[in-house]
Amino acid sequence: MDPKGVPIWIEYAKLIISMSTPIVTGIVGYLVLQLGFGIEKNKQLNQELVKKRLAFYDAVAPDLNRLFCFYQVVGDWSDLDPAKIIEMTRRIDKNFYVYRFIFSDKIFETYIEFSRGYFEPYAGAGLPARLRLDVHYVKRQMGSKFDEAWLPNVARAPGDHGEQSALYRRLMTDLGRTITGPSTVSTTG
Asked: Transmembrane region positions (predicted)?
């Protein structure tokens, strides 16, 4: 015991506590600082990812829309033909395959489903995919502008313009949600 009648171990405990408080405060401060740096780094990474996704969207959305217009016979469909559609599809495919890993698997699966609704792949060795056109609907909508020379480029199993419209909306909605978040994209239309 010390002269005041306080056990010595209490004095040692006070000394240890008074010395450890700045050390613990320093460690906690360092950890909070590291957490802050991690959050900031993650925020910057997410911003870059959103920029990449927007650039991807800017690259594929116009071609997807033109493809949709041709199959639905709306908008600027009249300056398109199967050769131009295949050319656009190759650009779209390239972008989806290059950037597929910055999106969820669901986005890529939705694109594959979309593609199967619009095209019959593997028409033969060295041949492009065939268009899954709803020929009766397209002929009725295009009238005399339908070119019978397109028929070799049309799949045997026709597409359904209603299903194709739904596939397009689903793909574009899912892409929009992935880029901007679920609350900013309308699913109606």
From this structure: 12-33
